[in-house]
Write a sequence for this structure.
Protein backbone atom coordinates (compact mmCIF):
# COMPACT_ATOMS: atom_id res chain seq x y z
CA UNK A 1 0.00 0.00 0.00
CA UNK A 2 2.75 2.36 0.97
CA UNK A 3 4.71 1.66 -2.22
CA UNK A 4 1.71 2.24 -4.43
CA UNK A 5 1.20 5.60 -2.78
CA UNK A 6 -2.51 5.02 -2.43
CA UNK A 7 -2.62 6.50 1.06
CA UNK A 8 -2.61 10.24 1.06
CA UNK A 9 -3.20 12.80 3.75
CA UNK A 10 -6.63 14.29 3.12
CA UNK A 11 -6.90 18.05 2.80
CA UNK A 12 -9.54 19.75 4.93
CA UNK A 13 -12.72 21.24 3.53
CA UNK A 14 -15.03 23.32 5.70
CA UNK A 15 -18.52 22.00 6.36
CA UNK A 16 -20.61 24.82 7.80
CA UNK A 17 -17.37 26.47 8.84
CA UNK A 18 -15.87 23.36 10.45
CA UNK A 19 -12.78 21.94 8.69
CA UNK A 20 -13.26 18.24 8.01
CA UNK A 21 -11.18 15.79 5.99
CA UNK A 22 -12.31 16.01 2.37
CA UNK A 23 -13.35 12.35 2.51
CA UNK A 24 -15.97 13.39 5.10
CA UNK A 25 -16.87 16.73 3.52
CA UNK A 26 -17.43 15.09 0.13
CA UNK A 27 -19.81 12.57 1.71
CA UNK A 28 -21.43 15.02 4.05
CA UNK A 29 -25.01 14.48 2.88
CA UNK A 30 -24.92 10.80 3.76
CA UNK A 31 -23.57 11.57 7.25
CA UNK A 32 -26.02 14.37 7.91
CA UNK A 33 -29.00 12.24 6.86
CA UNK A 34 -28.04 9.31 9.11
CA UNK A 35 -30.93 8.48 11.39
CA UNK A 36 -30.16 6.47 14.52
CA UNK A 37 -32.46 4.18 16.42
CA UNK A 38 -33.65 5.54 19.79
CA UNK A 39 -31.73 2.69 21.44
CA UNK A 40 -28.43 3.75 19.88
CA UNK A 41 -25.84 5.45 22.05
CA UNK A 42 -23.51 8.20 20.86
CA UNK A 43 -20.00 8.73 22.26
CA UNK A 44 -18.88 12.18 21.19
CA UNK A 45 -15.43 13.70 21.68
CA UNK A 46 -12.94 16.09 20.23
CA UNK A 47 -10.25 13.78 18.74
CA UNK A 48 -7.88 12.29 21.35
CA UNK A 49 -9.96 13.06 24.43
CA UNK A 50 -10.47 9.43 25.49
CA UNK A 51 -12.93 8.07 22.94
CA UNK A 52 -11.51 4.55 22.66
CA UNK A 53 -11.31 4.18 26.42
CA UNK A 54 -14.96 5.18 26.81
CA UNK A 55 -16.06 2.94 23.93
CA UNK A 56 -14.44 -0.02 25.70
CA UNK A 57 -16.01 0.81 29.06
CA UNK A 58 -19.45 1.07 27.47
CA UNK A 59 -19.10 -2.16 25.49
CA UNK A 60 -17.98 -3.99 28.64
CA UNK A 61 -20.87 -2.54 30.65
CA UNK A 62 -23.32 -3.68 27.99
CA UNK A 63 -21.75 -7.16 28.14
CA UNK A 64 -21.65 -7.37 31.92
CA UNK A 65 -17.85 -7.30 31.97
CA UNK A 66 -17.44 -10.25 29.60
CA UNK A 67 -13.88 -9.79 28.29
CA UNK A 68 -14.21 -12.47 25.62
CA UNK A 69 -17.41 -10.98 24.22
CA UNK A 70 -15.63 -7.64 23.92
CA UNK A 71 -12.80 -9.29 22.00
CA UNK A 72 -15.22 -10.28 19.23
CA UNK A 73 -13.86 -7.53 16.96
CA UNK A 74 -11.67 -4.43 17.02
CA UNK A 75 -13.06 -1.18 18.46
CA UNK A 76 -14.10 0.45 15.14
CA UNK A 77 -16.08 -2.67 14.17
CA UNK A 78 -17.83 -3.02 17.52
CA UNK A 79 -18.40 0.71 17.82
CA UNK A 80 -18.41 2.37 14.39
CA UNK A 81 -17.11 5.86 13.73
CA UNK A 82 -20.13 7.68 12.27
CA UNK A 83 -18.49 10.10 9.84
CA UNK A 84 -15.30 8.30 8.85
CA UNK A 85 -14.47 7.40 5.27
CA UNK A 86 -11.14 5.60 5.31
CA UNK A 87 -9.14 4.59 2.27
CA UNK A 88 -10.71 1.49 0.63
CA UNK A 89 -10.92 -1.39 1.31
CA UNK A 90 -11.60 -0.24 4.89
CA UNK A 91 -15.40 0.12 5.19
CA UNK A 92 -16.86 3.47 6.13
CA UNK A 93 -18.51 4.04 9.49
CA UNK A 94 -21.88 4.16 7.75
CA UNK A 95 -21.16 0.79 6.08
CA UNK A 96 -20.52 -0.81 9.45
CA UNK A 97 -23.62 0.78 10.93
CA UNK A 98 -25.79 -0.45 8.06
CA UNK A 99 -24.97 -4.03 8.96
CA UNK A 100 -25.56 -3.76 12.70
CA UNK A 101 -28.70 -3.99 14.79
CA UNK A 102 -29.44 -1.43 17.50
CA UNK A 103 -28.48 -0.77 20.19
CA UNK A 104 -25.25 0.41 18.57
CA UNK A 105 -22.40 2.30 20.25
CA UNK A 106 -21.64 5.04 17.75
CA UNK A 107 -18.51 7.20 17.89
CA UNK A 108 -18.32 10.73 16.54
CA UNK A 109 -15.95 13.68 16.63
CA UNK A 110 -18.51 16.04 15.13
CA UNK A 111 -19.15 19.25 17.05
CA UNK A 112 -22.62 19.55 18.54
CA UNK A 113 -24.14 21.52 15.67
CA UNK A 114 -23.06 18.93 13.08
CA UNK A 115 -24.48 15.88 14.89
CA UNK A 116 -27.32 14.51 12.73
CA UNK A 117 -30.58 15.80 14.23
CA UNK A 118 -32.06 12.30 14.50
CA UNK A 119 -29.93 11.74 17.62
CA UNK A 120 -31.80 14.55 19.35
CA UNK A 121 -35.21 13.80 17.87
CA UNK A 122 -34.91 10.20 19.03
CA UNK A 123 -33.57 11.23 22.41
CA UNK A 124 -30.54 8.95 22.09
CA UNK A 125 -28.21 8.76 25.04
CA UNK A 126 -25.04 10.76 24.42
CA UNK A 127 -21.79 10.57 26.36
CA UNK A 128 -19.37 13.43 25.78
CA UNK A 129 -15.76 13.07 26.93
CA UNK A 130 -13.50 16.09 27.19
CA UNK A 131 -9.85 16.44 28.08
CA UNK A 132 -7.81 19.44 29.14
CA UNK A 133 -6.77 21.47 26.12
CA UNK A 134 -3.01 21.11 26.42
CA UNK A 135 -2.95 17.33 26.85
CA UNK A 136 -5.56 17.03 24.13
CA UNK A 137 -3.36 19.08 21.79
CA UNK A 138 -0.24 17.02 22.59
CA UNK A 139 -2.06 13.76 21.98
CA UNK A 140 -3.49 15.08 18.70
CA UNK A 141 -0.05 16.19 17.54
CA UNK A 142 1.40 12.69 17.98
CA UNK A 143 -1.68 11.18 16.36
CA UNK A 144 -1.38 13.43 13.31
CA UNK A 145 2.24 12.31 12.94
CA UNK A 146 1.20 8.64 12.71
CA UNK A 147 -2.22 8.82 11.02
CA UNK A 148 -1.36 9.10 7.35
CA UNK A 149 -4.85 10.26 6.38
CA UNK A 150 -4.82 13.35 8.58
CA UNK A 151 -3.22 16.58 7.29
CA UNK A 152 0.51 16.96 8.01
CA UNK A 153 0.94 18.24 11.55
CA UNK A 154 4.00 20.30 10.61
CA UNK A 155 6.36 21.53 13.34
CA UNK A 156 5.19 21.63 16.97
CA UNK A 157 5.11 25.42 17.32
CA UNK A 158 2.91 25.84 14.27
CA UNK A 159 0.69 23.01 15.47
CA UNK A 160 -0.08 24.91 18.67
CA UNK A 161 -1.13 27.85 16.54
CA UNK A 162 -3.37 25.68 14.33
CA UNK A 163 -5.03 24.22 17.42
CA UNK A 164 -5.64 27.69 18.86
CA UNK A 165 -7.11 28.91 15.57
CA UNK A 166 -9.40 25.90 15.12
CA UNK A 167 -7.60 24.83 11.96
CA UNK A 168 -7.20 21.12 12.74
CA UNK A 169 -9.54 18.34 11.60
CA UNK A 170 -12.93 18.72 13.31
CA UNK A 171 -12.23 22.34 14.01
CA UNK A 172 -11.93 24.31 17.20
CA UNK A 173 -11.41 22.42 20.47
CA UNK A 174 -12.84 25.46 22.29
CA UNK A 175 -16.08 25.52 20.29
CA UNK A 176 -16.35 21.73 20.59
CA UNK A 177 -16.18 21.51 24.39
CA UNK A 178 -18.33 24.62 24.80
CA UNK A 179 -20.96 23.44 22.32
CA UNK A 180 -21.74 20.21 24.16
CA UNK A 181 -21.38 21.90 27.56
CA UNK A 182 -24.09 24.44 26.68
CA UNK A 183 -26.50 21.68 25.61
CA UNK A 184 -25.74 19.06 28.22
CA UNK A 185 -28.75 19.62 30.44
CA UNK A 186 -31.34 20.23 27.77
CA UNK A 187 -30.20 17.14 25.83
CA UNK A 188 -29.39 14.93 28.80
CA UNK A 189 -25.77 14.54 27.72
CA UNK A 190 -23.41 12.84 30.16
CA UNK A 191 -20.38 15.15 30.17
CA UNK A 192 -17.21 13.41 31.36
CA UNK A 193 -13.60 14.44 31.86
CA UNK A 194 -10.54 12.35 31.00
CA UNK A 195 -8.82 13.64 34.15
CA UNK A 196 -11.69 12.36 36.31
CA UNK A 197 -11.46 8.96 34.63
CA UNK A 198 -7.74 8.81 35.39
CA UNK A 199 -8.23 9.99 38.95
CA UNK A 200 -10.95 7.53 39.86
CA UNK A 201 -11.89 5.17 37.04
CA UNK A 202 -14.27 3.21 39.23
CA UNK A 203 -16.32 6.29 40.05
CA UNK A 204 -16.58 7.21 36.37
CA UNK A 205 -17.44 3.66 35.25
CA UNK A 206 -20.24 3.69 37.82
CA UNK A 207 -21.38 7.07 36.57
CA UNK A 208 -21.59 5.70 33.03
CA UNK A 209 -23.41 2.60 34.30
CA UNK A 210 -26.09 4.71 36.00
CA UNK A 211 -26.49 6.93 32.96
CA UNK A 212 -27.09 3.84 30.83
CA UNK A 213 -29.67 2.55 33.35
CA UNK A 214 -27.59 -0.55 33.88
CA UNK A 215 -26.83 -2.33 37.07
CA UNK A 216 -23.76 -4.56 37.29
CA UNK A 217 -22.17 -6.04 40.39
CA UNK A 218 -19.25 -4.45 42.24
CA UNK A 219 -17.12 -7.33 41.12
CA UNK A 220 -17.96 -6.68 37.48
CA UNK A 221 -17.19 -2.99 37.94
CA UNK A 222 -13.76 -3.94 39.29
CA UNK A 223 -13.18 -6.21 36.34
CA UNK A 224 -14.15 -3.47 33.87
CA UNK A 225 -11.79 -1.01 35.56
CA UNK A 226 -8.99 -3.55 35.24
CA UNK A 227 -9.76 -4.49 31.63
CA UNK A 228 -9.82 -0.83 30.62
CA UNK A 229 -6.57 0.18 32.29
CA UNK A 230 -4.17 1.86 29.88
CA UNK A 231 -1.78 -1.09 30.12
CA UNK A 232 -4.42 -3.68 29.31
CA UNK A 233 -5.91 -1.70 26.46
CA UNK A 234 -2.45 -1.12 25.00
CA UNK A 235 -1.82 -4.86 24.99
CA UNK A 236 -5.27 -5.83 23.73
CA UNK A 237 -5.19 -6.21 19.93
CA UNK A 238 -8.92 -5.45 19.84
CA UNK A 239 -8.46 -2.03 21.43
CA UNK A 240 -4.98 -0.87 20.43
CA UNK A 241 -5.79 -0.12 16.80
CA UNK A 242 -3.33 -2.68 15.46
CA UNK A 243 -6.32 -3.50 13.22
CA UNK A 244 -5.57 -0.43 11.10
CA UNK A 245 -2.80 -1.32 8.63
CA UNK A 246 0.57 0.48 8.98
CA UNK A 247 0.26 2.53 5.82
CA UNK A 248 -2.69 4.25 7.52
CA UNK A 249 -1.70 4.18 11.20
CA UNK A 250 2.09 4.01 11.41
CA UNK A 251 2.45 2.95 15.02
CA UNK A 252 6.25 2.85 14.68
CA UNK A 253 6.07 6.65 14.61
CA UNK A 254 3.80 6.88 17.65
CA UNK A 255 1.66 4.12 19.14
CA UNK A 256 -2.09 4.72 19.24
CA UNK A 257 -1.94 3.88 22.95
CA UNK A 258 0.81 6.40 23.47
CA UNK A 259 1.09 7.46 27.12
CA UNK A 260 -2.35 7.69 28.66
CA UNK A 261 -1.42 10.27 31.26
CA UNK A 262 -2.55 13.61 32.60
CA UNK A 263 -0.07 16.49 32.35
CA UNK A 264 2.17 15.21 29.55
CA UNK A 265 1.85 18.72 28.06
CA UNK A 266 4.58 19.80 30.48
CA UNK A 267 7.02 17.70 28.45
CA UNK A 268 6.08 19.55 25.28
CA UNK A 269 5.21 23.22 25.92
CA UNK A 270 8.01 25.68 26.63
CA UNK A 271 7.13 28.19 29.39
CA UNK A 272 6.66 30.86 26.68
CA UNK A 273 4.35 28.64 24.64
CA UNK A 274 2.38 27.81 27.76
CA UNK A 275 1.97 31.48 28.67
CA UNK A 276 0.85 32.42 25.19
CA UNK A 277 -1.58 29.50 25.14
CA UNK A 278 -3.01 30.42 28.56
CA UNK A 279 -3.61 34.03 27.56
CA UNK A 280 -5.50 33.00 24.46
CA UNK A 281 -7.35 30.30 26.42
CA UNK A 282 -8.69 32.90 28.84
CA UNK A 283 -10.18 34.81 25.93
CA UNK A 284 -11.63 31.83 24.11
CA UNK A 285 -13.15 30.34 27.28
CA UNK A 286 -14.37 33.60 28.77
CA UNK A 287 -17.71 33.32 30.49
CA UNK A 288 -17.84 29.53 30.50
CA UNK A 289 -16.95 27.58 33.55
CA UNK A 290 -16.17 24.08 32.41
CA UNK A 291 -14.19 22.49 35.26
CA UNK A 292 -11.07 21.46 33.35
CA UNK A 293 -8.15 20.35 35.46
CA UNK A 294 -4.37 20.28 35.28
CA UNK A 295 -4.04 23.03 32.73
CA UNK A 296 -1.64 25.36 34.54
P1 LIG B 1 -2.18 9.98 24.71
O1 LIG B 1 -1.79 10.30 23.29
O2 LIG B 1 -2.04 11.16 25.60
O3 LIG B 1 -1.48 8.78 25.24
P2 LIG B 1 -8.94 8.76 21.54
O4 LIG B 1 -9.34 7.37 21.88
O5 LIG B 1 -10.00 9.78 21.76
O6 LIG B 1 -8.30 8.82 20.20
O7 LIG B 1 -7.84 9.20 22.60
C1 LIG B 1 -6.56 8.63 22.62
C2 LIG B 1 -5.85 9.06 23.86
O8 LIG B 1 -6.43 8.36 24.99
C3 LIG B 1 -4.38 8.69 23.86
O9 LIG B 1 -3.76 9.65 24.71
C4 LIG B 1 -4.44 7.31 24.47
O10 LIG B 1 -3.22 6.84 24.97
C5 LIG B 1 -5.44 7.55 25.58
N1 LIG B 1 -6.05 6.31 26.10
C6 LIG B 1 -6.58 5.29 25.41
N2 LIG B 1 -7.00 4.31 26.23
C7 LIG B 1 -6.72 4.73 27.49
C8 LIG B 1 -6.91 4.16 28.78
N3 LIG B 1 -7.47 2.96 28.94
N4 LIG B 1 -6.50 4.87 29.86
C9 LIG B 1 -5.93 6.09 29.70
N5 LIG B 1 -5.73 6.68 28.50
C10 LIG B 1 -6.12 6.02 27.41
Amino acid sequence: LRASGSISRFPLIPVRGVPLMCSIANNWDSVWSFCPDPADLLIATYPKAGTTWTQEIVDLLLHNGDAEACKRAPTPVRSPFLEIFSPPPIPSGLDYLKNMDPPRIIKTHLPFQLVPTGFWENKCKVIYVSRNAKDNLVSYFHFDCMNMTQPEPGPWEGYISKFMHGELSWGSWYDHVKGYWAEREKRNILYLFYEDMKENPRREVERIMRYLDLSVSDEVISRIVELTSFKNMKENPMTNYSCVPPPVFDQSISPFMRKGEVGDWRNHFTPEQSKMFDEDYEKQMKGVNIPFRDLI
The CA atoms of residues 72 and 78 lie 8 Å apart. The longest strand covers residues 125-130. Strands lie at 12-15, 18-21, 41-45, 105-108, 125-130, 189-193. The chain has one domain: 17-284.
